[in-house]
Design brief:
two-stranded antiparallel ribbon, 17 helices
Length: 411
């Protein structure tokens, strides 16, 4: 067992959690609650008391660690989905290009420069290439490889960081000291850029074109089946950056039919995200989480979904994300059955109502289903998607933990 503490909690890493007599522990007058999270068994004692208990454990010769040391152990112990979600959270919460390089052990500023290179205005803009009316086409390298900018492609950013950071670490080991400062960053940026722009980027472009054919077929499936699939999967495309390929489908539908059912089916995830934010705001007892929820909701109301996706749903566990995906799919399925479709594209959440004012029935059902999506996702998230860690109150400065940083630990 190893122990550390923050401002209010004693945090333990134990070999066998089942051997802890939780009922007996929670009957102690000084214990205000217990829970198990992220590989740690946490006992809530309160300020002042936790310091005394921790000091007593030190005097008994029990193994103690700093919070940073224990967090590192927990991170290494996590496997599978949990480890992936933690890694994604570490990447997405700050600036993606910077933080992705940092997570993979590289120099963050190299990631920033690479990110700027991959979205350079010299390259054809990915969104413009996806719009047939823009007149912008991919540049064909060697006559066969399509070159497109990487705007909005989060997956490409992660792969870029993974390749670049690992290349940098290997070069640092073999590069002569006199050349390391200049040559290592130069070689890393050059090689990584070429790999991404000539390899990963074109592959993502081809995948995007394949999605166009798939979505066009799904739109016409009966009984709302296609609507559910599109509504449930579209948020995942936003996360990976492949959603811009839908512009091509929407433009084609508008040109040929005058209507755009695709944006209707995709739009419900924005309303579901609002429900997620409201649930976290209502159920959380941490001021920082409540502030994040309100800020993310205000952004989402006008179509910016990344703060919700990356700041809440990918940060905590899969349950809020799964609930949102199911809600989005359900709302899209109902709209598909009712044959609701917009007559334009590009508007989301609150502004989206403007796309249905051309007919009263269209506007009415879009409004009803959107409100249902907010309410349904809110209720389901409150009941099943709120992690226990955000329901436990703690001091606003707990994450800074000055007592842990300054406390003298053995070894």
């Amino acid at each position: 067992m190893s122990a550390t503490h923050c401002a209010t909690r004693l945090r333990l890493i134990v070999k066998d959690k089942d051997k802890i007599d939780e009922k007996k522990l929670e009957k102690l007058p000084l214990v205000k609650g217990t829970f198990f999270n992220a590989g740690q068994y946490q006992i809530i004692l309160g300020t002042g008391i936790v310091n005394k208990v921790y000091a007593e454990m030190e005097s008994m010769g029990l193994k103690t660690l700093s919070k940073q040391e224990q967090d590192l152990i927990v991170k290494k112990q996590q496997k599978g989905v949990k480890r992936m979600m933690r890694t994604l959270g570490d990447i997405f919460i700050p600036i993606i290009c910077w933080s992705a390089f940092k997570v993979f052990g590289g120099t963050p500023v190299i990631g920033i420069v690479l990110g700027l290179m991959l979205v350079s205005p010299i390259l054809p803009n990915a969104y413009s290439v996806a719009d047939p009316k823009s007149g912008v086409d991919a540049v064909m390298a060697f006559g066969v490889i399509p070159i497109v900018g990487c705007q909005g492609s989060v997956l490409t950013a992660i792969l870029t960081a993974l390749i670049g950071a690992n290349l940098e670490k290997k070069l640092r080991k073999i590069m002569p000291n006199a050349l390391d400062l200049i040559m290592t960053p130069f070689v890393v940026m050059l090689v990584t850029f070429l790999i991404v722009i000539l390899g990963i980027g074109p592959v993502m472009h081809v995948i995007g074109l394949g999605l166009v054919d798939i979505v066009e077929k799904l739109v016409h499936l009966p009984l709302g089946i296609g609507g559910f699939i599109i509504g449930a999967t579209y948020p995942l495309l936003v996360i990976t950056g492949l959603h811009h390929t839908y512009t091509m489908i929407e433009t084609s539908l508008l040109a040929n039919t005058g209507f755009n059912p695709v944006i209707t089916l995709c739009a419900m995830y924005g309303f579901a995200n609002v429900g997620t934010c409201l649930a976290f705001f209502v159920k959380s007892r941490k001021e920082s989480v409540r502030q994040t929820s309100i800020g993310a909701m205000l952004s989402q109301l006008f179509g910016i979904s990344e703060p919700v996706l990356f700041g809440i749903q990918l940060r905590y566990n899969l349950k809020p994300l799964i609930i949102m995906l199911c809600t989005s799919g359900l709302g899209a399925a109902v709209l598909s059955i009712l044959n609701i479709r917009s007559n334009s594209y590009g508007l989301a959440v609150l502004p989206s109502y403007l796309m249905y004012i051309y007919e009263g029935r269209q506007l009415f059902w879009h409004f009803v289903v959107s409100v249902f999506s907010v309410a349904f996702c809110f209720a389901m998230t409150c009941m099943f998607g709120i992690p226990k860690e955000v329901t436990v109150p703690e001091d606003e400065e707990e994450d800074d933990v000055p007592s842990v940083q300054t406390e003298k630990l053995p070894g």
